[in-house]
Each structure stands twice: as structure tokens, then as C-alpha cells.
Amino acid sequence: MSAKVLKSAFWGVGVALVLAGSWAWIDRWVNGEKNANYGSLVPWGLWVAAYIYFIGLSAGSFLVSSLVYVFQLKRFESIGRLALFSAVVTLILALLSISADLGHPFRAWHVLVYPNFGSPMAWMIWLYSAYFAVIMLELWFVLRYDLVVASKSAGFRGTFYRMLVFGSRDESPETLASDRQIVRILATIGVPVAIMFHGGVGALFGVISARPAWHGGLFPILFLVSALASGGALLAIVSAVFQDGLRRNRDTVLALGTLVLGLLAIDLLLQISETLVGFYGNEPARIANLKTIYGGPYWWVFWVWQLGLGTLVPLALLVLPATRKDPRVVAGACGLIAVGFLAVRLNIVIPGLADEQLAGLSEAFSSPRLTTDYVPSTIEFLFTAGLVGIGLLLFGLGEWLMPHGGEPSAGEAPAVGTEGSHVTA
Q: What fold does the segment set 37-401 form as a domain?
């Protein structure tokens, strides 16, 4: 399949999903949470699971970019910009997803103005803000040279690029070297921030002692490893689509496949350890949670989606000699891994809430909101599908709108007009 066909598919699927989700967005903002199926006993649903999923993709993508801009790893130099852009796009999707879950999303600024730093959530919001500022600044300095060169073009694009660089015309080697230094400083700052904010998401679950399914010190580490694995998998897919990764840039896709394979193996080991410790501890509430995951009404989310399609099948494809050197198979395996991690997030959020804290509580009153049998509503599914559509369109817009030309390698003089790839290259 050619890169042109893949890009067209990105656009087509993105438009279809946005159109499907538009009705759900209108319903959410007109009717509030009335048509969502979470309630008093299961207060977090699909939107929270999607939120931590997108956050993981963002943190993972950014940390992969740090291999280029902090550790100067040449092997992944071609995806440095792609990784940063992916981090921005998926962070936007995460914030849109959690905004749907919030009863009063327009009060979110209260956490910044009136923070309680004894709360992990307050730290998380502040770290989000710092992380968003860092990655936006870093992406701007990474692109600044190409934007200045492209700002000389006529028409809408030239005007747009001049606005992005605030009218700057500086193409000097000295300024380019300064840009590189600033990028490295920002990337260095961003690494601990990304680790803290996504580890903070894991800590937000881990510190809730009333929920044995979550309570434990391993959650922050699990969240970080799964973020790296899912973020690397996402980059393999987007690189295959927008960098001609099935042909011209095939070596990068194969290298990402190897990286993701190692991270997925570590993540699997941590999950197995968490499960074995849970069974060995024989704590009734924890055992009930594990039984809900493995044998409850949604057993297939774990056995078929998470373990089968999201773990075992891609592991086999990335290990077998006949398939691990084929960029098409590697990209497909990474696609399964990226989608599989949504099941991981669902299996964290939903089963952890579905077991009653007080036996018989769901039968004490008659109310559709007082039940542990949570299934996302049509509105929830369509809203989330629409967010995925927005993400696909943002990737497409980035590839189409950002300037041609490549940032010169270290020590190389800038060459105006050289052809390279877009921001997603």
C-alpha cells in the first residue's frame, strides 16, 4: 500500500469519525452527563480510561523524542519532530477526553489558582501545564528554521508561517545553533516533567487505599512503561503513514518495532508480577477484582483484546524472523499494541470500581445510577470515536500544513530550499 493511499485513509477515517462524534459532542454539552452510563458506584467510565490512554501516548511519544534531543541518539533522529508533534496531538485529545467527564470543565482553572498541594491531582494539573508549555516551546524551536525559510513563500502559507515566527527572517547558522541548544535544554527539562506527570497519574490511582485493585507502589512504574510502549507503537504507525516508513524510512519503523518489543516485554512482566502478588496476597477485595477482570462479564476485554490481540499476537510478529524484518508487519503489530493499551486502561478503571465496597449497596435503592454493571453508552462511544477522528485530522493537517525542508544536521550549514519532509518527518 502506497504512502498516498495511507494518507488518504487517514483523512477519510478521520472525517468519518468526527462526523460520527459530532452528535455526541452536542449531546454532551447540551444534556450534560445525563446520557452517560457511569453513576454513583462506577463514577469513572470510558472517558477516564481514554484520558489516561491518550496521556500515556503523549508521555511515551515525548520520552522517545528525548532519545534524539537529549541523548543525541542518531538512530531515531528522523522521528524527533514526529514524536514531539505526536505528544502535542495526543495531549490535546487527553484534555478533551477528561473535559467530557468533568461535571464543570470550565472550573478547571480553579486547580491552578486555588491548589491543594497535598493532593496528587493538584500536582498532576500543574505538571500538565508545565509539560504542555515545554513541548509547545520545544516544537516551535525545532521548527523555527524551516518556518523562517517557508515564510518567504507567497499566499496563505507564507502569511501563516510569518505569523508563527512573529515576522522573523533570521536564518543565520548562529541562530540555528542557538535553537538547537534551546531545544536540548527544553527537552532535558521535559524528561523529568513527563516522568513526574505520568507517574503522577499512576500515583493518583495507587494512593487510593479504599480501592485494593489500585492501591500499591507499582502503579506509577506500570504507567510509565506502558506509556513508552504505547507511545513508541504510535510513532511506528504514524511514521509508516507520513514518512513513507514502508519503503524509504523502513529502517526507522523496524527500529521502533525492536524498541516497542522490549518495552512491551517489560510491561508484561510487571503486569504478571502485579497479578501474582495479588493472588498470593489472597486479600478478598483484590481477589474479587482479579476475578472481575479475568472471568467477569467483560472477560473478553482482557483475554481477547488486551492479552490476545494487544500482546501475544504482536509479540509473535515482532519476534519471528519471517515477520520482524517486514515494515508492513511491524507497523501492523505496533498498531495492535497501541490499540491494545486502551484495553489495559479499561481494565484498570472499570473493574477497580465495579466491585461493591459495601455488600448489597447496589440493591439498597432502585436507581439506574446505583449499579456496578457499567457499559459505556452510545454517546460515550461516539464521543470517544470523534476524539480519535480529531487526532487523525490533526496528524493530517500537520503533514499538509507544515513547511517542507529539513533541519540541518549538527555541524551542517543551513541550505535554503532543500527538500525534506514535513513536521511529521
A: Formate dehydrogenase/DMSO reductase fold (1.20.1630)
